[in-house]
Amino acid sequence: MLKTPEIELAGRAEGLRGLMGKRGIDCALICQNADRYYLAGTVQDGVLLLAAEGAGAGPVLFVRRTLGRAREESLLRTILPMGSLEDVCAYIKDTGLAAATIGLEMDVLPARFYLNFASLFPGARFVDIGAAIRKLRSVKSPWEISLMKEAGRRLDRAFTRIREEIRPGRSEREVFIRLLGFLLDEGSGTVPRTRAFNMEVMPPYVLSGESAAKASIMDSPSGGGEGLSTAFPYGAGDKRLVKGEPIMIDTSLTHEGYVSDCARIFSIGPLDDGFTRAHAVSDECHRLFAEGAREGAYIPELCKRIEALVEKRGLGESFMGGVKFIGHGVGLELDELPLIAGRYEDTLREGMVVAFEPKFVFPGGTVGYENTYCLQRGVLVGFHGTATDIQYV
């Protein structure tokens, strides 16, 4: 069992303490699975306490369920049993830790938890620490990047195998089942974690022809399709693959908790010239992004250049199927920072990992590809080696 190294955990705790100090936060109480895993190396149910300073400042992991597994999985030095949130409160009081200002993950924390904390710490000021944690997690360490590159290699192998399964008459669902098996063969988790409220992801997406253009609840150019039922109205359905239409396969692979995200376009026989021209523009967007992605690059300016290229090619109306981003960070979750969007006013930094996905959605299908990249030593490095042109079968 791979464990998060102690040096990784220590560096992350110090990084968060630095952000807490800038905002005058005395202690943070971390409840969300991905954040707790990032800081403790285990997702066993509980609360992680990180105080800015003082004896017993932590990190201290309080575990509701299951204590034995938490101690097996995590290299934190202090892991304690927890019967209820009152145990966390008692520890803070007994050790004399300051708790006038408490950080909570307010972007994801259920209201019931917030109200419980408020009753346990009357008079305390509660502030959101979720944004600070997301910012900290947006820059990956070399250890994290190595896991994500391995995820990319494994995903490439799955893409190579699925090519042989794309045949006329097969349904999207049949190809979905085969690809899911290939991902499981590579050791992937079945469901990537996401942070956004009510965001449910069911990779792999296998969408052919007009089904890829069918909008759904997913805020994604790849999230259409008929789906399995009205309860899960997105993703692969019963539509049969036919000649002459683009088949988009968009999926992620999770290796040791870390995600790599990728999309490729296949076709049974030749495609209309409109599709091939648009796919070539997607390739131009990738090259333009790679040229501009440098330490300190202002993300809205990068997006402005890419959107100008798309408009120049006459494809503005079909770009991204109406969603307002061109890429997104990936890591322990599929929807991490940075967001590659004009509204995201921040810069790229060394160690950021981004899934860049310029796509074009037409009534008859979707083209364009997605790659996961990392900014390393001043250049953009791709995690995927499979062919990015339209793959004819």
CATH class of the largest domain: Alpha Beta
**Shape estimate:** elongated
CATH-assigned fold name of the largest domain:
Creatine Amidinohydrolase
The amount of beta strand, in percent, is 15-25%
Question: How is this structure best summarized?
Answer:
The protein has helices at residues 6-23, 33-40, 67-73, 85-94, 111-120, 130-137, 142-162, 172-185, 273-292, 299-312; strands at residues 27-30, 45-51, 60-65, 79-81, 101-104, 125-128, 205-208, 246-255, 258-267, 327-329, 336-340, 353-356, 360-362, 365-367, 371-376, 379-382, 391-392. The protein is of the alpha+beta class.
Main attributes?
single chain, about 400 residues, alpha+beta, Creatine Amidinohydrolase, Chain A, domain 1, Creatine Amidinohydrolase, 2 domains, five-stranded antiparallel sheet, 10 helices, about 35% helix
Overall description:
- The protein is built from ten helices and 17 strands.
- By secondary structure, the chain is an alpha+beta fold.
- The protein folds into two domains: 6-137, 3-Layer(aba) Sandwich (Creatine Amidinohydrolase, Chain A, domain 1); 142-392, Creatinase/methionine aminopeptidase superfamily (Creatine Amidinohydrolase, Alpha-Beta Complex), CATH 3.90.230.
